[in-house]
Write a structure and sequence with these properties.
The protein is α/β, with parallel strands linked by helices. It has seven helices and five strands. The two termini are 18 Å apart. The structure holds shikimate-3-phosphate.
């Protein structure tokens, strides 16, 4: 069976962009977990799920998305930044392949996505920094492989993951 690669990391760590490149390099499919989660709701955006139904509902939908994703093979899965909050999700996905953590500094995250308004958990920089400090050790702890992505071009990050997957 062909295994999956599950990318984890904070918002803005590059899970989707790196994931697409990695999938191209390795001739794998790519899927964004947020898209699956959104498709299980009747909402138009993740921000709308948070605003109208709250985070708890979003996390419930994420568990359902993880169950669906666990059926896939040969797929690079860009997970939602909050999956480390829910060990059940990591257990579902971790069984299907390798977990790769994309590590960034908070400063880099702010530079990349601090100006965007589509992330409900990135509205207040001080709160987001607390979330970052709480979660960053969890990404590392759950990962089979950790890769630093600060200031690194997408192609190089994807290449490094490919190399390290071989060992
Ligand atoms: C979240 C990250 C988002 C999305 C939702 C919640 C989080 O995904 O799932 O806004 O809790 O960190 P990205 O990491 O793809 O931005």
């Amino acid at each position: 069976m062909k295994m999956n690669i599950i990318l984890i990391g904070f918002m803005g760590s590059g899970k989707s962009t790196v994931g697409k490149q990695l999938a191209r390099n390795l001739f794998m499919d790519f899927i964004d977990m947020d898209d699956v989660t959104l498709s299980l709701s009747k909402r138009k955006s993740i921000a709308e799920i948070f605003a109208k139904e709250g985070e708890v509902r979003f996390r419930e939908l994420e568990i359902r998305a993880a169950k669906l994703l666990a059926k896939r093979t040969n797929t690079v899965i860009a997970s939602g930044g909050g999956i480390v909050l829910n060990k059940i999700i990591l257990d579902y996905l971790g069984k299907t392949g390798s977990i790769v953590s994309l590590d960034t500094t908070f400063e880099e995250v702010v530079e990349r996505i601090g100006h965007m308004e589509n992330r409900p958990l990135f509205q207040d920089k001080v709160k987001t920094k607390k979330l970052f400090d709480f979660r960053q050790p969890l990404y590392t702890a759950y990962a089979d492989i950790s890769v630093t992505t600060d200031k690194m071009p997408i192609k190089e990050i994807a290449q490094e993951i490919t190399e390290r997957m071989k060992h």
